């Protein structure tokens, strides 16, 4: 192991030892009950079978984005690692080997030789790249991005990222702006192909009947957003009594907290819970429904007139995928803090970006919005050509 890698490994070991009490404590929470023991204690998390093409994605969105990339490959040659439990649930559906990505300390002992390692977006792990490359894998960054907001922090550690990107063989990035930022950090062999999420086939897995009246979906919401959206909905509901609101929190561990919030803010009003009040049938008698179920969002976009896309009304989240409501032609509103979705927003027409304190007014006049639509595409062929060439060499 080279001196820098050895120092990095030793620092990772020290950090790991110091964090063990917290890791054990957090492992008791349902959100981390599976992922933390697997990642930090290797529980039920053996190495991949050697000789495959290893894709690493962080969470749900990135793991779903893998689907068109896996189509030309056989499930037997694919390996998929994720960080989150929800991402792992998606990975299980591909029928290939799937694991949690272990903490970096374990990389020298866990990583087996693979033909290629394909890492999505901004998952920059020094020992993952260094060890995988040393074991013979071609290291590729795909859908790579460096947001304008986070780039100054990367630039302060340019000395480190120059070493990290020296362990990367090829970068396929989302935009020219991303390419310029990677080059400033010392990366090379970079090609712009667009955002691979444009290659996703957005589909509804269930076909629900369109409810009478107007349906509004509060999609992928975070703490603090539900209360704001509910206030805006109540103003619209006063003028449009036939309107209904579906609240879909981003994280399932917040379902109970959001239910309590709705109870507190909807005193005397009819609210329902998807899981216990009949699913879609709850819309018939209840103006507000908490959707405490996973995998339903596209199904709900398909029957919704208006989407209020969460994650962008909070300064620290960065927004969520605007392509999905646009695919179903929802009139769509979102907040101003969409920095993680800036590239995707370029490909969506007629999406309304509003300040937090303007949401109520914007929703009151939402019938004046045009349906959101998608206006772009992505070329995955350079990635497939590169993968084929390197696998053959």
TrEMBL record:
Q: Where are the transmembrane segments?
A: 6-26
Q: What is its main location?
A: membrane
Location in the cell: Cell membrane
Q: What class of enzyme is it?
A: transferase
**UniProt keyword annotations, A-Z:** Cell membrane, Glycosyltransferase, Lipopolysaccharide biosynthesis, Membrane, Transferase, Transmembrane, Transmembrane helix
Source taxon at top rank: Bacteria
The record's catalysed reaction(s) read: lipid IVA (E. coli) + CMP-3-deoxy-beta-D-manno-octulosonate = alpha-Kdo-(2->6)-lipid IVA (E. coli) + CMP + H(+)
**One of the record's GO molecular function terms:** Kdo transferase activity
Q: 3-deoxy-D-manno-octulosonic-acid transferase N-terminal domain location, by residue?
A: 38-199
The UniProt entry, under NCBIfam families, shows: PRK05749.1-5
Q: What protein name does the entry list?
A: 3-deoxy-D-manno-octulosonic acid transferase
